[in-house]
Amino acid sequence: MAFATINSNLSYWQKQESPLYPDLSWNIPEQRKGNVIVIGGNSQNFSTPIRITEFLENEFPFNTVKLLLPDALRGKIPILNSIELLPSTASGSFAASERLRIFAEKSDATLVIGDLSKNSSTAVAIAKAIRPHEDPKPLILARDSVDLLASDAEDWLTRQNTIIIASMAQLQKIFRAIYYPRMIMLSQPLIPVLETLHKFTLSYPITIVTFHQENIIVANSGNITTTHIADTNYSPISLWSGQLASKILGMNLFNPNKQLAASTAALLY
Questions:
Q1: For residues 153 and 164, is the Cβ–Cβ distance under 8 A?
Q2: pTM of the model as a whole
Q3: What is the pLDDT of residues 124-167, one digit of tens each?
Q4: What does the angle CA 3 – CA 138 – CA 197 come to, to the nearest 5 degrees?
């Protein structure tokens, strides 16, 4: 792949000091629209996927929200229409299955929320499910799903309409996995980080949401927005709870092909 050159005049950078895309927050349909799936959980840890599924059901007018959990949880949770149990590994995490792939391919938006355990079989299963295909719908990778899938980044980084909510440490793992020639460092000032993300998202068709030096950064197609965290309802800890990932999913589903704008607007939604 040919790597993009850096635009040194920072014309690609906008600061969200007041809402940059105020109309998008009003672009939520009154009638129900879209079928969403949430993938996450293992036999020992599944509270966050359940909580985030309930949040999505209450926050946005989706047609359906389905939570996919490994079937090792059968008998541990109530049988609900919103939950689908899929094949699991002996350790209680997701195993590769055709149902998992079909759910991911047929949904209007997918959120991989994490709590997936450090299991190589599960990493393979999720990587197969999110593999690029024709007309991909919004895919959001959040929390430990980013760590789990980092080694397969070369495959899913080429998937259109993919958004990752990742810490700087998680971005380092991705950059190392693909041997990216310019590393992102926790010790760097803000502007060199923005320059690297500008270049990276010109090279790969992905949207990155991260946090550095009190700023929430959104990068897509070489363009960058930053929002000071003090101007949002988030803290450096609550950013990673899954709630922001859920709002980013909703805003992107209802505002197709506007990943930068929709993801930036979600910070203030």
A1: no
A2: 0.94
A3: 999 999 987 778 899 999 999 999 999 999 999 999 999 999 99
A4: 30
CB 145 within 8 A of CB 242: no
- Read off the tokens for 64: 């359906």
Torsion angle of C-alpha atoms 146, 153, 186, 225, degrees rounded to 10 = -80
93, 115 Cβ separation under 8 angstroms: no
Dihedral (C-alpha) 267, 252, 55, 123: value to the nearest 10 degrees? -100
Contacts of 30 (CB under 8 A, 6+ apart): 61
Q: Catalogue the E-assigned strands of the chain.
A: 13-15, 35-40, 64-70, 83-86, 109-114, 139-142, 162-165, 206-212, 215-220, 223-228
Amino acid at the residue 8: S
The Cα angle at residue 213 between residues 261 and 147, in degrees rounded to 5: 75
Q: What are φ and ψ of residue 83, in 5° steps?
A: -115, 135
Contacts of 75 (CB under 8 A, 6+ apart): none
Question: CA 246 to CA 257: how far, in whole Å?
Answer: 17
* 121 phi, psi to nearest 5 deg: -65, -40
Let me know the angle formed at the C-alpha of 94 by 206 and 50, rounded to the nearest 5 degrees: 80
C-alpha distance from residue 26 to each of 103, 240, 269 (Å): 29, 25, 10
Least Cα distance to 160 among 220, 224, 103, 206 occurs for: 206
